[in-house]
Structures are given as C-alpha cells and as structure tokens.
Write a structure and sequence with these properties.
This protein is about 20% helix and about 30% strand. Strands 1-2-3-16-15-4 form a six-stranded antiparallel β-sheet. The radius of gyration is 47 Å and the shape is rod-shaped.
C-alpha cells in the first residue's frame, strides 16, 4: 500500500485499504521506513519507485490505493489531475511529462525513487502542518508528506535525495513544449567533404536550449558518423558533420518531446481500489528537415606548350579553353561559362616555363585547348582552319595535365649560285634568313675567282699572237 500520487476524486475510490493490501509487482526504486501514517495503514514502509505492469515499468498516481499486479488490465483514463480532482497547473503537467519521458525507463534505483517522490509531490503533496497530513485521515483524504519523505530519503538513500534535486532542476530547465529546427551550411557543399549542420531543440517560442534530448538523424545523399545524437549539456546548438554523397543532401531530424499532458491509464474492473498509472509513451513527435545542394570537388587543367624536337617550354603561346565540342565554353565550378572579357571561351597565355593553369573548373568535365596562333618560328605546320588542339577529362579534386607540341620550321640552305645573281635556294615552305656577313664572304670569293680567270685568258691571247 504505497505508491505514488492519487489523482481522481472520492467517487472513483472503493473501501479503505487495510493492512493486508497488495504490495503489487515492484519494479525499480527504494523503500523508506517507517511508512507515512494514516487511518487503517499498517504497512511498515513506503515504496518509492516503479511497478511492472504488462512487462513495462510504470508509475502510480493515486497514493495509498492498492499497488497494481503485473497482470492488472488498464485502459486510457481522464486527463491527469491532482488527488482531489483538481486540474494541474500546466507547468506542473509539463514537468511530469518531461520527467516521464526522461526517467520513466531508468534502471537506476535512486533515479526511480526520485521520480516517484516528485510525482507524489506534484499531484498530492502538501506542506508540513497541512491538515491533510493528519494521521486520522483515511487513504482517500491523506496527502503526501513531501518534507517527511524527502528527509527519509536523505537519511536512508542519500543518492536518491540528490536525484530529487537533479530531476527537479532538469524538469524546470527542459519541460515542454519544444521546438526543433535544422540548418544546412551556408557555404558550397562538396561531395565527399564533410561540413557542419546545426540542430536546435528549444523551448517553444524561445531560444532557450533543451539539453540532453536524443535526436535521430536521417540523411539522404549524405552520411553521418552517428544516426542518434544528443543535444549538448551546455545548451549550445547540436552540430553534426554530414558528408554529401549526392547532389541534394538532406537531413531530417526526429525526436520525442514531452506531451502537454501526461497519459493516464485507469484500471479495468477493479472497483476503484487500484492505483492509476502513468508512463512515457504519450510524448509528441517532433520533426524538421533541411536541404542543400552539393557538387563534386572542383578540378584544374595545366597545359604545357613545348618544342617537339627539344621538349623545351614555349612561352607566350595563346590557347583557347573550350568544352569537348571545341566551340562552347568550359564550365566553372559555380556553373557559369568560362569566358573571357570578350564573351568568348577564355584564352590563356603560356608563361616563361611554357605552362598555363586554370583552376576551379566543374567536374567531371571534358575540355579542349586549342592553339590560337603559332609562335614565331613554328608557323610552318600551323593551319588556322584546323589548329593544333588537345583534349581530356577533368576529374573531381584533380588537375588534368595536358601537353601540346609545336614543330619548329625547317631551316633551308642554298643549292646553286648563278653568276652575277643572288643565291638561289631549294624550294621550301619558308625561307630561312642568311647572315649578310656570310653573303659578303661568298661574294668576295666569287670576285677573286673570276679575276683569276680573266688573267689566264689574257695570257693565252698574248701567247697566240707571238
């Protein structure tokens, strides 16, 4: 004949309980002695804790009625009221809902005893000196001695007394109703790279954080390290790392919040002599979600322009970057076209080492680099209608290395020298310039040779005359 707080009025009650009353199927809790005295009560102790009904831990809310057996049948009852049939203050009802949500499943004897004590205190507790504590009252009119039971806990189960203070503070800080919200990162999301999402559980209509609330995460187009997390004890927002795996990462959060009113169960066909019970299970389901977009990591292209003979880099070569079709512009990471200031596909110029690099390109993407004009000394094989080009595919987070070679012009040399004329050269696509000094030397040799021939001819003529 112990238990927890009584709720309804005398009309629901049966005859007074006697000393032979059933102690029920006790669950988790603590026993305190001596029992609170009231007319007809011969129990030596009071049980502060849960009862097992239908395999589940529950808490009773009609102090001094019979405790339920494990096979007692229950059905939904009326809204929770105090022992004398009065409506509970909404704040008190919210605290009870939270405590049941947070502690009803505890396997800690001291926590269970503290919960039972608080339920008694909220629904039938009276202060010292209140006439409802008169031992002459019967079970139907006796109030719960808050101070007396707390003193017994302090003396016999000090950890349970500490738990009373802790649970009361927890209920005050975290009672419902609650709100929940989830916020995606503001920055661009990269597939394969984790980023921080924020979950806030707060008192409804405020920014006051709820601490210690379990939150279930469901992620699409992404992954998380844990699918169930808890709001921080310091009241800061819950931050979770989400790694995008697809283009539209979405985070959905679900949690159980305390109901506005606890769920009360009434015994079936017992004549009103069995305590009513409360338990978790009537909580509200809260949910929220947020979505953003994600892309693959950007890539880059690095092109090297070289001499096909020496493999030396060629500086100052202009190359146009295009899509695979060699006409449209390539695409930047933000989805815009990679155009120059002229509105056409961007043209880059190789540096002193013969290379040019373009970063922050969308991936995967096929691109081409097309030579705009041949560098000096390499125009022999350049065809403006079909300029040299090289193509490749840019992969996420990588740099595509491409090389484009230019064949140098072929040098030409003289093949015949007509008398008194300019040097003739072999047919060629391009004439190679010859050093003027070298030409002067060659001319000198020709003059000397011709002069010698004239001298010999004159001598022959003189000899013939003689």
């Amino acid at each position: 004949m112990t238990g927890i707080t009584m709720l309804a009025g005398a009309a629901m009650l049966a005859a007074p309980i006697t000393a032979s009353a059933n102690t029920g199927s006790r669950g988790v809790g603590q026993e305190v002695t001596p029992a609170q005295p009231y007319h007809g009560n011969q129990d030596p102790s009071d049980w502060l804790g849960s009862y097992v009904v239908g395999g589940k831990d529950v808490y009773c809310v009609r102090f001094a009625l019979n405790a339920p057996d494990s096979d007692t049948q229950y059905k939904p009852g009326e809204p929770l009221k105090d022992k004398w049939g009065k409506d509970l203050d909404p704040v008190v009802a919210a605290k009870i809902s939270y405590l049941l949500l947070r502690y009803a499943g505890t396997k800690d004897a001291d926590q269970a005893a503290a919960l039972a004590h608080l339920l008694h205190s909220y629904t039938s507790g009276v202060p010292a000196g209140d006439p409802r504590l008169d031992p002459a009252n019967d079970f139907n009119h006796i109030g719960y001695d808050i101070a007396g039971h707390l003193d017994k806990l302090k003396a016999q189960h000090p950890k349970a007394a500490d738990a009373v203070m802790a649970e009361e503070a927890d209920a005050t800080a975290n009672q419902g109703p609650w709100d929940v919200a989830v916020t995606a990162p503001t920055g661009a999301q990269i597939i394969g790279t984790p980023d921080k999402w924020t979950v806030k559980v707060t008192h409804a209509g405020t920014d006051k954080a709820i601490t210690g609330a379990p939150v279930k995460l469901t992620v699409t187009d992404g992954t998380v390290d844990k699918d169930t997390v808890t709001t921080p004890a310091d009241g800061s927002p819950l931050v979770v790392n989400v790694t995008p795996t697809g283009p539209k990462p979405t985070v959905k959060v679900d949690l159980s919040a305390p109901a506005d009113q606890p769920v009360v169960q009434a015994p079936v066909n017992t004549g009103g002599a069995i305590q009513w019970i409360v338990s978790t299970g009537g909580e509200k389901a809260l949910t929220a979600n947020a979505t953003t977009t994600a892309k693959t990591a950007p890539g880059a292209v690095k092109v090297t322009k070289v001499d096909s003979k020496t493999n030396a880099g060629l500086a100052g070569v202009q190359l146009r970057i295009t899509a695979k079709d060699k006409t449209a512009a390539a695409v930047k990471q933000d989805g815009t076209a990679l155009n120059g200031t002229d509105g056409k596909p961007l043209v880059v110029t190789t540096g002193a080492d013969g290379t040019a690099t373009v970063d922050n390109l969308q991936t995967p993407q096929d691109i081409c680099l097309i030579e705009v004009a041949a560098p000096s000394g390499y125009d022999e094989n350049f065809d403006a209608s079909s300029p040299p080009s090289v193509c490749g595919s840019i992969e996420p987070g990588k740099t595509l290395a491409l090389q484009l070679a230019n064949t140098p012009n072929k040098p030409t040399v003289p093949v015949k020298i007509p008398a008194g004329g300019s040097p003739m050269v072999a047919d060629a696509a391009t004439v190679t310039e010859i050093d003027p000094g070298a030409l002067a030397g060659i001319g000198g040799l020709l003059v000397i040779a011709l002069g010698g021939v004239g001298f010999l001819l004159r001598r022959r003529r003189i000899a013939s005359r003689g």
